[in-house]
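haha ok so turns out i had the wrong file open the whole time. this is the CORRECT one, sorry everyone. sequence first:
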Amino acid sequence: MKTMARERDTAELLQRLRQIRPDSGRQWGKMTAHQMVCHLTDCCRMALGENPVKDVSSLPQRTVVKWIALYAPLRWPIGLETTPETNQHVGGTCPTDFSADLADLETQMERVAARRHDSKWPRHPIFGSMSARAWLRWAYLHTDHHLRQFGE
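then structure:
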């Protein structure tokens, strides 16, 4: 099971991320490649507790859906809505300079991966309380999902 708790899995994501270009075409969704980079950065900051997001979870999402999303051998479905705070069309960070935004994302991903042993993590807006193990698994899957969105 891939996770950002493993250096090789984080390195793989970073290598794939470096293949993304501002004009990379999406396979699905509404975001541009540049917006996706900013979305992932906002989500890293959410995982670090620096980008507070509103709790929109429900009991099924905090239990069954969380387990399926993190541990079932299934790819995440396309077209899921994100929180307004991480949605570049609503309240997320607006893209500025692609190279600078990409470098910032790499830094934030490395910061998330470096927290592998921390016990205090914020609540996830959909999945509620999560352990370091769950957050790092989510971070891998979420990043992988969006890299696949742009063919990586």
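The chain has five helices and no strands.
again sry for the mixup
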